[in-house]
Write a structure and sequence with these properties.
Blueprint: H1 3-9, E1 13-20, H2 24-35, E2 40-43, H3 52-55, H4 76-81, H5 91-104, E3 111-112, E4 117-123, E5 128-133, E6 138-146, E7 168-171, E8 186-190, H6 194-203, E9 209-214, E10 220-222, H7 230-238, H8 240-249, H9 268-281, H10 283-286, H11 292-295, H12 297-314, H13 318-324, E11 337-339, H14 342-345, E12 351-355, E13 361-364, E14 368-371, E15 374-377, E16 380-383, H15 392-395, E17 398-400, H16 407-410, E18 429-431, H17 444-464, E19 469-472, H18 474-489, H19 519-531, E20 537-540
Helix pairs in contact: 2-17, 17-19
The structure holds ligand NA7.
Length: 541
């Protein structure tokens, strides 16, 4: 049917593809689809590109993956023209980089900013998706790609009394532009994940008094961030081909990590030496022993105890050190945090740690936070409380597939997908790095590029072969979910209250939402599926 003719009369915009989200994934998706000659529009709530990196502009925001690999590999021109200034780039530099890429590829002309996608409804007759936006647009397209991000829907816990607080309130993932004045002020931070740690270590020197409200202590290891020297930049630029190859072949997509598998077969002294040397060199070297630690409790216990001892070595007050020391979950089963002076902050006289396990927050008052019958007076209260991760941004959109079936309803007992990319009853809906992809435990850039390339190639195949739709088949989804669960069952992940498990959001179904079998084996599986005529998908002529 010629639906574009029909829609013209109703003032509807007709395209080939809609992309939701102008972050790292949406930007590259737009580029790939435009290269194929498709009419594409990207929608994003933010005023600029960057997704999570647009919004997460809190003081000290920094990537926990090395810049030379946390970047696009698809264009040699881009990687040669761009120069990273630090091994682990800060948010302003990453956002500048993403804007540089947007300029270079002239992406903005096909992006509608400050425009939220409210709904995406599938028409079985037209075999197309209709999207309604906050800007009042109705857009119809054959393909709808959700590049909504894994860490893009902020979690703002429902603590009674927040409205009464007379001071300033911030959430790390919705930080306003410009400088926040902390000088001499009493600042409270709720949350001690990666974000809380970065924020705390950054603002501690300038605040008057800092109160850290901690529910679960983190395992934080030294980032050992460094400036990139001219020699290092030259070395990186001349070896990018190898760097990228290594990262695509690495279990976590992070080729810079020193491989140190098989630790458990080494004598105890050698394992200790590995941990000591890794600690001195920083994240890349220390974390080389993952994922072995995920799968082996004995090795995990050893690494965890090593980190605990380092915390005790730094933090002078024994009670504070004990409160900061994680004891009830395995290292790496919540995403490991990188620190740059975090534990030293607790030796500063102006810093106070409130252990919420002993003194839970009762409510927020006009003046501050009431926890364990003590009121902590504050001028500024910061929520570093994370995200409704992986599914949050998708579920906020009213997505309805075949027969009006809602994605929200389909996932009410936990998300189910085929390869993290698609779900039955939602034809031509592609979910980028969706639930059960390996992305959240991996380097997002290669994971995103792999997904974008797979989706772009799939759309090219559909068009070339005259297929109207592609749709995941129930049985294939079930097999994939069984595999995801089987692999997770061999690890220690299921025991932790992590965002990988949906456990950080009250009421969210508890389920592993990430594939732990490694990025290369996942990529291989996706490639095999495509090579075998999109095995596990139904193709409609
Ligand atoms: P995380 O890792 O989810 O950390 C959120 C922190 O906030 C964590 O310490 C939580 O404690 C704490 N939290 C959440 N809700 C509450 C309430 N209601 N009361 C007290 N404390 C609370 O998010 P981040 O933003 O730090 O990092 C997300 C990812 O970004 C990270 O994994 C990296 O990949 C980059 P909990 O542990 O749940 O007890």
């Amino acid at each position: 049917m010629n639906y574009s003719q029909d829609y013209k009369q109703k003032n509807v915009i007709v395209l080939d593809a809609i992309v939701v989200g102008a972050g790292v994934g949406g930007m590259y998706m737009l580029h790939r689809l435009r290269e194929q000659g498709l009419k594409v529009r990207v929608f994003d709530d933010a005023p600029g590109v960057g997704g999570t990196w647009y919004w997460n502009r809190y003081p000290g925001a920094r990537c926990d993956v090395a810049s030379t690999e946390y970047s696009y590999s698809f264009s040699d021109e881009i990687q040669q023209e761009w120069t990273w200034s630090e091994e682990f780039a800060g948010q302003p530099e990453i956002l500048r980089y993403l804007n540089f890429v947007a300029d270079k590829l002239n992406l903005r002309s096909d992006i509608s900013f400050e425009t939220r996608v409210l709904s995406a409804i599938y028409s079985e007759n037209a075999k197309s998706w209709t999207v309604e936006t906050s800007g009042g647009d109705t857009v119809v397209a054959k393909y709808c790609i959700m590049a909504t991000g894994n860490l893009s829907s902020p979690h703002f816990p429902d603590i009674p009394g927040l409205r009464n607080f007379k001071g300033e309130v911030y959430h790390s993932a919705r930080w306003p532009e410009g400088q926040t004045q902390f000088g001499g002020k009493r600042v409270g931070v709720i949350g001690t994940g990666s974000t809380g740690i970065q924020l705390i270590q950054t603002i501690a020197p300038s605040v008057g008094h800092l109160t850290v409200f901690q529910r679960t202590p983190a395992y934080a290891i030294p980032a050992k961030n460094q400036a990139m020297t001219a020699e290092r930049v030259a070395e990186v630029k001349s070896t990018y081909a190898e760097i990228r190859k290594r990262s695509f072949e690495h279990y976590l997509g992070m080729g810079y990590m020193t491989a140190q598998m098989g630790l458990r077969h080494l004598p105890r002294e050698e394992r200790d030496r590995h941990y000591h040397e890794g600690w001195k060199k920083g994240a890349g070297a220390f974390m080389g022993c993952f994922p072995e630690l995920w799968f082996n409790k004995e090795e995990n216990d050893l690494a965890a105890e090593f980190i605990r001892q380092r915390i005790r070595n730094v933090v002078v007050d024994k009670n504070v050190a004990a409160a900061l020391t994680p004891t009830d979950y395995h290292v790496g089963t919540k995403r490991i945090c990188l620190e740059m002076g975090y534990y030293d902050v607790f030796n500063q006289p102006n810093t106070e740690l409130v252990d919420l396990r002993k003194s839970p927050i009762e409510r927020i008052t006009e003046n501050g936070v009431l926890a364990g019958e003590m009121e902590y007076p504050l001028d500024i209260l910061i929520f570093a409380t994370g995200f409704d991760a992986i599914t949050g941004a998708l579920i906020r959109i009213d997505i309805r597939g075949r027969g009006g079936k809602s994605l929200q309803e389909a996932w009410k007992n936990g998300p189910r997908t085929y390869l993290g990319l698609a779900a039955p009853d939602f034809p031509n809906l592609f979910i980028m790095n969706g639930p059960t992809s390996p992305s959240p435990v991996s380097n997002f850039f290669p994971a995103i590029e792999q997904n974008v390339d797979w989706i772009a190639d799939c759309i090219a195949f559909l068009r070339e072969s005259g297929r109207q739709t592609i749709e995941a088949v129930d049985a294939a989804q079930q097999r994939w979910m069984d595999h995801v669960n089987e692999v997770a069952g061999q690890t220690l992940f299921l025991t932790a209250n992590s965002w990988f498990m949906g456990a950080n959001i009250p009421g969210k179904a508890r389920q592993i939402m990430v594939y732990l079998g490694g990025f290369p084996s996942y990529s291989q599986r996706c490639a095999d599926v495509a090579r075998n005529g999109y095995h596990g998908f139904a193709l409609d002529a």
